[in-house]
Amino acid sequence: FNSLNHDMTLPEFKFIWYMEYSHRMWGRAVGLAYILPAAYFWHRGWLSRPLKGCVLALCGLVCFQGLLGWYMVKSGLEEKPDSYDIPRVSQYRLAAHLGSALVLYSASLWTGLSLLLPQHKLPETKQLVRLRQYAHGTTALIFLTALSGAFVAGLDAGLVYNSFPKMGERWIPDDLLAFSPVLRNIFENPTTVQFDHRILGIASVTAVTALYLFSRKIPLPRRTRMAVTSLLAVACMQ
Which residue, 171, 178, 193, 197, has fewest beta-carbon neighbours within 10 Å? Predict the structure, then answer.
């Protein structure tokens, strides 16, 4: 209020407050929805030894995610008397919070599907091994693209250029490497952050499309083919 929103009314503040409060309550509900059933299954002896390790790891991730959320919000409330910048959370902590959420969600989904669906026993052909490698590489690229989106959000980098495919009148903007040292631009220059996110997004869609086309040349189970097709559909929609 002191730094930026001088004309904010009490109802406007309440709207922001309740958004934050709802997010916290939802996060706590997610934690309880995981921890309480897990404790019950453990007590009943329904978990195998390997699954117990997995459950503990996921439980740790749930708690770590909440801790990261607090650490992230704290950065937006710190006094910065020498700075005239708009108050905002640290883009580094925001990326860490989002990244841990993606890891938690992916690990939970992987664990659940592994228990619900039997693993297909397929011959380890060269094509299948290569498809698996491509899939892992595409996963890493998508994860990196999502993390770069957190930097876009944290720096309000989406407000810098609103044209596509060019950024303003240029393919490569003039202020792409305006900060020194050069490495700072990747994480702190809004122009560079938006540019990187665009490139990573295009690369992700290209990788998913290539993965889909390659999968069409290999005899795969119906479930796997549905997964690859769904991946392409979601990438195009995104």
Answer: 171
Q: What H or E segment, with its residue span, contains residue 5? A: none
CB 161 within 8 A of CB 194: yes
Here the tokens at position 201 are: 């997004």
| Omega within 30 of 0 (cis) for the link into 181 | yes
pLDDT digits (tens, 9 = 90+) for 106-164: 999 999 999 998 887 877 788 899 999 999 999 999 999 999 999 999 999 999 999 99
Q: Which residues of 121-158 are buried (b: 16+ CB within 10 A; e: fewer)?
A: eeeeeeeeeebeebbeebeebbeebbbbbbbbbbbebe
How buried is residue 7: exposed, middle or buried, by Cβ count under 10 Å (0-12/13-18/19+)? exposed
CB contact at 8 A, 197 and 152: yes
Structure tokens at 177: 């490497």
Measure CA 4 to chain center: 29
Convert the pLDDT of each residue in 70-79 to its tens digit.
999 888 887 7
CB 228 within 8 A of CB 215: yes
pTM of the model as a whole: 0.86
Upper half-sphere CA count for residue 139 (Cβ side, 13 Å): 10
Considering only CA atoms, which of 154, 201, 195 is closest in space to residue 171? Answer: 195
Q: What is the DSSP letter of 45?
A: T
> What does the alpha-carbon distance between residue 106 and residue 112 come to, in Å, rounded to a whole number?
10
